[in-house]
Amino acid sequence: MPSTKFGKNLPHGVYAPVLTFYKGDDEELDLETYKKHVQFVARGGVNIVALGSMGESVQLTHEERNQVVKAARSALDADSSLSQVPLIAGTGANSTKETIELTKVAAEAGADFAMVISPGYFAGAMSRKAIKQFFVDVAEASPIPVLVYNYPGASAGIDIDSDLMAEIAAAAPNIVGCKLTCGSVGKLTRLTTLRDDFAVLGGFIDFLGPSLLAKAAGGITGVGNIAPKTCAKLYKDTLAALSGQASVSSAQDLQFIISRADWALAKTGIAGAKWVLDQLEGYGGKPRRPLLPFDDADGKGKQLLEDLKEILEVEKSL
Fold first, then answer.
1. Which of 8, 35, 179, 233 is catalytic?
2. What are the phi and psi torsion angles at 220 (to 5°)?
3. In order of start, what are the domains of the chain with their CATH numbers?
4. What is the pLDDT of residues 230-274, one digit of tens each?
5. Which of 15, 22, 34, 149 does the annotation list as catalytic?
6. Which residues participate directly in catalysis (predicted)?
């Protein structure tokens, strides 16, 4: 297998599933805004996931996906201080063949790692054997290391338990980690001791502290789109606290703030995150239809900003 500049070891830290932006009512990709946002997130100390769930990957054509990964790679390479920021690309699809094709294209476009979700369209026929075979086939054909993306809410309820994840990892050395958007901390703690080179990432930042205590590699969080410095600080402060080099209570206080922000943003989804970016940075726009824009009427927008006030104050101070 061709190796990336990171080999098969996923760098630990916080990652953000970067939002994808569009121009006007025709919904054409706004790649310049996308590159600007990639740099905003990366300069805040957060690593990049292109075409994650918040990046609306399932809404994009193959060519658009390719353009997005190329744009992310270009944005990072354009700044020498960001050229070593790892780039994960979401490459999941509903067939093994299409997933392999998307993964190879993403690798050619500059992705360092691929993140693949379980194919959920025929969820009723996806036995444990079928799920395992899917990931083994993709990993063996992939020119870059692969992460298993376990997100039952976006894969028709398919939830890979720790036993099956261990089987997949044992059968496919090119699978180097997983993202657990199932939110199971118990599953996470069982998997962090699976292999020394197997990186386990929580799918939300509201349990990053407990995850790092259990020796997770970090987390992937939509909050990184609006407060990357704060997310990076929580990661660093928690590790420092766990090693006895910093205050545990200080890291806990920051975790409480971020957990509240994560919940506020999660309830509004992609549309809410884009609306907040519009208020803070002057760009964001609407999600691609059929997703509807955030409805800020009846004080909903004011309430969202109020719910995010704590984390935005911390972000501004950094």
1. 179
2. -120, 120
3. 13-226 (3.20.20.70)
4. 999 999 999 999 999 999 999 999 999 999 999 999 999 999 999
5. 149
6. 149 (proton donor/acceptor), 179 (schiff-base intermediate with substrate)
